[in-house]
Design a protein that fits this description.
mainly alpha, 30 helices, 68% helix, globular, binds 2-acetamido-2-deoxy-beta-D-glucopyranose, Hsp90 protein binding, ARM-like, UNC-45/Cro1/She4 central domain-containing protein, cytoplasm, UCS_central_dom
């Protein structure tokens, strides 16, 4: 693997193709430690990541808005391929060398470039990014840049603060030393600075997560921040970049159920969010999809602790997370309904082309939440949802979708198959292809609801025609289905028996 050809690259398309090839290469092959240690190549990649559209030289590499996202994904994938501690150590060494080397030079541009590269690391191999961020003087350097009068420095520093504010200790440092700087930047005349400062404040302000009892800023500040994000989002004049930052700001604030309710009642804002998603633009995937997941509560909830443990914790003055009353199921269902009716599926379909597996999982989660509601399933199919879900449910490549993502996609497909005629929901080849994801849900570790929904969908499919019945047999479905005929739960027994009955239509069977 040669990674040293970057000097030759002069146009964006090449960078794009090379990054794509590198991603494919790293996903298809386990590296032994010798092959991976092309430190020079890694540093070249960091060099690409530190490239800015604002700097123009003869020898400059051309970059597009997508380059950074791709380089981050690539850096992350290489890091994931470092299977040994020693290899990860080498990776970190290469990065540190790059940073030290750049910072030796007294000029400002090097500092800006280090900050930009650090942002790429924080959005890619987060552990590496955090290690660099924890170096003495690093956060301070970034805050000095944010506090300067130079727009470019303010911009890159804000982006780095946003990316870096993920771990508790860093958040605390930034809150202690940086909040007043961000507040000052939010008064900037330049909208691109204002929106970034705003997102920084949103992320810091929501560092308590869904826990309604932790709010680092004063009472009411969250709704003020949300209102500010909304303004940026709906304002038609604002360019795509500003709107995508606004969506990212909302992705942090919508952990708060008050913000969720307010946003969902705000038609122009919801439409703007969906329109943004429909562009399918790489840069907006995270913000849009995370906001949607929050709105429909499709994240994993922690089990509520047992009451006696709560009392014990109260006694010991430990912190107890609190669930917000607006996160009750009926409120969530209403929010899902609003989004479904506003045509969110079209946005999800456009966004499902993302290269990021974690983002795909989020998309599958939202799809599954939509399909949980029977009356929305028809719209999901009509807007291309079933077609988009199928590849996400079928893939076994962890770089294509996560295991949880596959599970959510499969359950969404099952739910569709229960309500909608399979000939309509899965026309042509798809009626046979959907069999495997459904059979995958017949897993003893999965919930009885997942099992049941899969059996119901299989029952409808088995009634469709001989092609599908033979596919169920070929995918070793019989054994799995038969197991459920001996289940304790009567509904599962009944559903499994119904599938078997429909399979009886096959002479072969
Ligand atoms: C890696 O390189 C070292 C020295 O260059 C060599 O001794 C070792 O056998 C190589 N390891 C593999 C797995 O190729
Ligand atoms: C994607 O978004 C970026 C800004 O985030 C923008 O510059 C670019 O033009 C957008 N691309 C498309 C195809 O809309
Ligand atoms: C079974 O149904 C699917 C989807 O409607 C169709 O593509 C396939 O040709 C059908 N097979 C037979 C044998 O009719």
């Amino acid at each position: 693997m040669q990674m040293c050809h970057f000097k030759l690259i002069i146009n964006t398309l090449h960078i794009f193709l090379i990054l794509h090839h590198m991603s494919l290469f790293f996903s298809s092959k386990k590296l032994n430690s010798n092959e991976s240690l092309n430190l020079l190549g890694l540093q070249r990649l960091l060099e690409v990541s530190s490239e800015l559209e604002e700097y123009t030289y003869e020898s400059k590499m051309e970059v597009t808005p997508s380059t950074k996202t791709l380089v981050s994904a690539c850096l992350n994938r290489i890091y994931e391929c470092m299977y040994y501690d020693a290899a990860r150590g080498e990776y970190l060494k290469a990065v540190e060398e790059f940073v030290t080397d750049k910072l030796k030079s007294p000029d400002l541009e090097s500092k800006v470039r280090v900050t930009v590269a650090l942002t790429s690391l924080l959005l890619g191999p987060l552990d590496v990014g955090n290690t660099i961020l924890a170096r003495d003087g690093m956060i301070e350097m970034i805050l000095v840049m944010a506090n300067s009068d130079d727009l470019l420095q303010q911009k890159v520093a804000c982006e780095c603060i946003i990316a870096g504010a993920s771990k508790k200790d860093k958040v605390k440092t930034i809150i202690d030393q940086g909040v007043h700087i961000l507040k000052k930047l939010y008064q900037s005349k330049d909208d691109s600075i204002r929106v970034r400062a705003l997102v920084g404040l949103c992320k810091l302000g929501s560092s308590g997560g869904t826990d309604a009892s932790i709010r680092p800023f004063a009472e009411g500040s969250t709704s003020k921040l949300a209102e500010a994000c909304r303004k940026f989002l709906v304002s038609a004049k604002k360019d795509a970049d500003i709107r995508r930052w606004a969506a990212e700001g909302l992705s942090y604030l919508t952990l708060d159920a008050d913000v969720k309710e307010k946003l969902v009642e705000d038609k122009p804002a919801i439409n703007a969010l969906i329109e943004l998603g429909k562009t399918g633009n790489r840069t907006c995937v995270y913000g849009v999809v995370t906001t949607l997941v929050n709105l429909v509560n499709a994240y994993d909830k922690k089990e509520a602790p047992a009451p006696e443990l709560v009392r014990l914790a109260e006694f010991a003055k430990h912190h107890i997370p609190q669930e917000h009353e607006l996160d009750d199921p009926d409120f969530v269902a209403k929010r899902v309904e609003v989004l479904g009716k506003a045509g969110v599926t079209t946005a999800l379909v456009a966004l499902s082309h993302t290269e990021s597996a974690p983002c795909k999982e989020l998309i599958c989660r939202v799809f599954n939440a939509l399909c949980n509601q029977e009356d929305l399933r028809g719209a999901v199919v009509a807007q291309g949802g079933a077609k988009a879900l199928l590849p996400m449910a079928l893939t076994t490549d962890p770089h294509e979708n996560t295991e949880n993502g596959r599970r959510h996609a499969s359950q969404a497909l099952a739910r569709i198959g229960i309500t909608i005629d399979p000939a309509v929901a899965y026309p042509g080849q798809r009626s046979a292809e959907v069999v495997r994801p459904l059979l995958n849900l017949l897993h003893l570790d999965y919930t009885a609801l997942e099992n049941f929904e899969a059996l119901m969908a299989l029952c409808n499919l088995a009634g469709l025609n001989e092609t599908v019945r033979m596919r169920i047999v070929k995918e070793q479905g019989l054994q799995k289905i038969e197991t459920y005929m001996y289940e304790d739960h009567v509904m599962l027994r009944r559903a499994a028996t119904q599938v078997m009955t429909n399979l009886m239509l096959s002479p072969e069977f």
